[in-house]
Amino acid sequence: MKKPRVLIVEDESSIAELIAVNLRHNGFEPIWAEDGDSAQREIDAFLPDLVLLDWMLPGQTGLQLARHWRKDPRTKTMPILMLTARGDEPDKVAGLDAGADDYITKPFSTQELLARIRAVLRRRAPEAVTERVEIGDLVLDTATHRVTWQGAPLKVGPTEFKLLGFLMQHAERVHSRAQLLDKVWGDHVYIEERTVDVHVKRLRESLGAAAPMVETVRGAGYRLTAQVSV
């Protein structure tokens, strides 16, 4: 069985080596890059299954790298887990807005790191859901991983695709953030509810004119509805 390849982008060699040792012992194949340029060379040579990306790097920051990779079609869906010593809420949100799937604040335990890596990889795995869902002019097809609005294709990120799929399959029902974390993310023991808000915001941006279909129900959560004029 092929081991998942994890690219560690971290300028502190002692931290990178500790992470690499733990990943090897737990069935992963780690590769280390100490800055953005070497990380890009590794990605050009192979596409990793996941990137552990440090926020503070010499040269380009982790945020800049994440934004760059999200704009490139080849790396657009590459899972990114940000490593940061910044625990402030605005910094965490900035990391998610830049395209990271999740973040982990230093210092962290090996168990927490492995749990987050596995959760991100599970999120990216194909789901057993209805292949095609249509709500009004919005169509989601899991077989081709495409979303269309009035026949035009929309660019939707992988986590947002999964979130949209769940909301469309349970249209008109209100789901709390905790329920969405449980149903969409699966293992949310380390994921904060604020993460849901960031991904909903990103989903609405992707939907464009169809964004009003994703409604915020104050004090309750979110729902997808066809009962709006968009």
From TrEMBL:
UniProt key word NADP: no
Q: Which UniProt keywords apply?
A: Activator, Cytoplasm, DNA-binding, Phosphate transport, Phosphoprotein, Transcription, Transcription regulation, Transport, Two-component regulatory system
Modified positions (4-aspartylphosphate) in chain numbering: D54
Query: Source organism's superkingdom?
Result: Bacteria
Gene3D superfamilies given for it?
A: 3.40.50.2300, 6.10.250.690, Winged helix-like DNA-binding domain superfamily/Winged helix DNA-binding domain
- Report domain OmpR/PhoB-type positions: 130-226
Query: What Pfam family does this protein match (any one)?
Result: Response_reg
- Note the SUPFAM superfamilies from the entry: C-terminal effector domain of the bipartite response regulators, CheY-like
- Which intervals hold domain Response regulatory? 5-121
Q: Which CDD domains match?
A: REC_OmpR_PhoB (cd17618), trans_reg_C (cd00383)
Q: Which InterPro entries match?
A: CheY-like_superfamily, OmpR/PhoB-type_DNA-bd, Sig_transdc_resp-reg_C-effctor, Sig_transdc_resp-reg_PhoB, Sig_transdc_resp-reg_receiver, WalR-like, WH-like_DNA-bd_sf
Where does the UniProt annotation locate this protein?
Cytoplasm
UniProt cross-references to NCBIfam families, sorted A to Z: PhoB
What does the UniProt record say this protein does? This protein is a positive regulator for the phosphate regulon. Transcription of this operon is positively regulated by PhoB and PhoR when phosphate is limited.
> Which PANTHER family does this one have?
PHOSPHATE REGULON TRANSCRIPTIONAL REGULATORY PROTEIN PHOB, REGULATOR OF RPOS
According to UniProt, the name of this protein is Phosphate regulon transcriptional regulatory protein PhoB
- Gene source species: Variovorax defluvii
